[in-house]
Design brief:
alpha+beta, 7-stranded antiparallel sheet, 4-stranded antiparallel sheet, 12 helices, 19 strands, elongated
Length: 380
């Protein structure tokens, strides 16, 4: 789960990580009120879940109420990497003497967390890493021992941080580790962490990504989920415990099991079709999950045909049929639906689907071929 900058900073503040004063706004009137609290200078930042805001004109300095109004309207009119800007963060301007990059990530290759630090913070970090892979200092973190103080000091030394700031730096990084650990985060990042006036360290930007699979342990974090920024169907799939990934095709797919789902997508591609999604209802799916999955596919305006491929093991085919019929009996479905049922209670499931209007096919290869024909209008 990705979290907006202003939300990430709210969490930072809870853990004692210093951030600039500021508040979120959705229009120039609110932005002007915030400016009156923070003047003379403020920074106005687009709130979108993507990188590259600065280079796209989504982060700008304002020195007057007139500039606040103009810049706010300009930024709220932007679309950055396909994402329209609907909110801005208005913050006090901070004098920057030096910028650093700090992050704690889940290193999937090493199978453990890692602390990353660099003296090239801000927008320069990507260019610095491209030119020099050693620009980022990385420290693996033993998940049992946690992040240790000597590791933090080694990072401070590696980024050439002035020694008088080491204790303050340690407090921030250890708080970042605590945030990461207590919230089951995938990654937490400060870019840049800056030295400001009075030799103070401040987190000018904040990124927090939470592991989707751990959200159930942190119900308090669901308030940060921004439906406007997330795909509507992915949001609904999460709510029903389904695995959904949006693709760029027009054949809606519902399958039980990740391996079977991937094989189904491959079969469609081999036949010249384009899957619209990866939707795995999982092993042991009940009728409610099946009906929820079908409803999600029906909402996708791109979909021309729906392919359902179920191989019943723990999942019972009669439960699948029950879920499908609960939708078909209460909703007018104009899309063609191709289904292949095999495995546990397949005979019972197929019997239930007689006269349902579905296109029932015994072989998945044939089901894929028919689905592609229906999506393209081909008669082959």
């Amino acid at each position: 789960m990705r979290i907006q900058e202003y939300q990430s900073k709210r969490i930072f503040s809870h853990y004692g990580i210093p951030i600039p004063r500021g508040r979120v706004a959705i229009n120039a009137i609110i932005a002007d009120h915030i400016y009156e609290e923070l003047k003379p200078d403020v920074v106005i930042k687009a709130q979108v879940l993507t990188s590259g805001r600065g280079k796209a004109g989504g982060i700008r300095l304002a020195k007057s109420a007139e500039q606040v109004e103009q810049i706010t309207n300009d930024i709220l009119g932007l679309t950055i990497k396909g994402m329209p800007v609907k909110k801005i963060l208005v913050e006090e301007a901070v004098k920057i003497d030096q910028e650093y990059f700090i992050a704690i990530i889940t290193d999937k290759d090493a199978g453990m967390p890692a602390l990353m630090a660099s003296k090239y913070g801000g927008m320069d970090i990507e260019d610095a890493v491209r030119e020099n892979s050693s620009a980022i200092y990385t420290v693996p973190i033993d998940p049992l021992a946690g992040l240790l103080e000597f590791q933090v000091r080694s990072a401070a030394l590696a980024v050439e941080l002035p020694k008088q700031l080491w204790n303050e730096f340690a407090d921030i990084v250890l708080a970042l580790w605590k945030l990461y650990e207590e919230n089951d985060a995938d990654s937490v990042e400060i870019n840049p962490l800056v030295i400001s006036e009075g030799d103070k360290l401040i987190a000018l930007d904040a990124k927090v990504n939470i592991d989707d699979n751990a959200i159930y342990r942190h119900p308090e974090l669901t308030e940060y989920f921004d439906l406007e920024e997330e795909d509507r169907m992915e949001y609904q799939a999460k709510k029903y415990g389904l695995s959904y990934v949006k693709l760029d095709g027009d054949i809606g797919c519902m399958v039980n099991g990740a391996g079977l789902a991937m094989a189904t997508l491959d079969l469609l591609s081999d036949q010249g079709g384009k899957p619209a999604n990866f939707l795995d209802i999982g092993g042991g799916a009940n009728s409610e999950k099946v009906s929820s999955g079908l409803k999600i596919l029906m909402q996708d305006e791109r979909v021309k045909v729906i392919l359902i491929n179920i191989f019943g093991g723990i999942t019972r085919c009669d439960e699948v049929a029950k879920g499908l019929l609960s939708v078909f009996n209460n909703t007018t479905i104009e899309l063609p639906v191709v289904i292949r049922l095999a495995g546990t209670n397949a005979v019972e499931g197929l019997e239930m689907l007689k006269n349902s209007g579905l296109i029932v096919v015994e072989n998945i290869g044939e089901a894929a071929r028919i689905s592609v024909q229906l999506s393209t209008g081909s008669k082959k």
